Amino acid sequence: MKRNILIHPDPRLKKVCAPVADLSDALRTLADDMLETMYEAPGIGLAAPQVGVLDRLIVLDCIKEEGATPRPTVMFNPKVVAASDETNVYDEGCLSIPEQYGEVTRPAVVDVTWIDRDGNQQSETFDGLWATCVQHEIDHLNGKLFIDYLKPLRRQMITRKMQKLKREMARG
Ligand code: GNR
Ligand code: NI
Fold first, then answer.
1. Residue 26: how many CA atoms within 13 Å on its side-chain side?
2. Residue 46 Cα, ligand 2 centroid: separation in angstroms?
3. Would you list the domain boundaries of the chain?
4. Which residues have C-beta under 5 Å from ligand 2, the single-atom ion?
5. Which of 56, 94, 95 most suits a substitution to test ligand 1, by most atoms within 8 Å of the C-beta?
6. Which of 26, 43, 136, 146 has the fewest CB atoms within 10 Å, i.e. is most exposed?
7. Closest Cα partner for 58 from 108, 14, 114?
8. 121-167 pLDDT, tens digit each
9. CB burial of residue 74 (10 Å; 0-12, 13-18, 19+)
10. pTM beyond 0.85, yes or no
């Protein structure tokens, strides 16, 4: 089932999310719903707070080429355990901040640990778009958005645009 994506500004997008203690059917259903919501958007990642759930859960699939095999990835309690000194700049966007973009500098390569959909501990090294995306998603779990890396004036301009968009959406 597709879920609604919250639009910035929303207090739930600023919260630090809670670690998941035990996997449950409800959490697996949430992860499946998030993947469906992400693919439908379409996006390359989605964090639970973006659908209003304040748990440490993200999903991602950064394979964008048409015809390539998808790689739906579910991460509970994801953690960056090592990051390269080398950085990458990417023009980031966010499904909670539609049609707004900004350049963000992040470590180019990160080692990430997480618990997968079956409850198994996983660890992997990510680079390229996967590294950018997984860091963007983990930021969401800590109440941080990509616009928090931009200059205050640019951030304020984007926030005002989103307030206007939300007013218009509410009017229908
Ligand atoms: O779909 C998305 N694209 C994207 C592009 C550059 C950097 C990060 C992202 S993640 C974003 C989906 C989203 O908002 N995830 O939280
Ligand atoms: Ni986002």
1. 5
2. 6
3. 11-171
4. 94
5. 94
6. 26
7. 114
8. 999 999 999 999 999 999 999 999 999 999 999 999 999 999 999 99
9. buried
10. yes
- What are residue 97's DSSP bridge partners? 94
Residue 92 contacts residue 80 (beta carbons within 8 Å): no
Give the integer Cα–Cα distance in Å for 88 and 128: 8
CA distance 87 to 124: 18
Rounded distance, CA 59 to CA 44, Å? 8
Q: Is 137 a catalytic residue?
A: yes
Protein residue with its CA nearest to atom 11 in ligand 1: 94
Determine the Cα–Cα distance for residues 172 and 168; give it in Å rounded to an integer: 6
The per-residue pLDDT for range 3-55, each reduced to its tens digit, is: 999 999 999 999 999 999 999 999 999 999 999 999 999 999 999 999 999 99
Q: What is the CATH number of domain 11-171?
A: 3.90.45.10
What tokens does 44 get?
């390359």
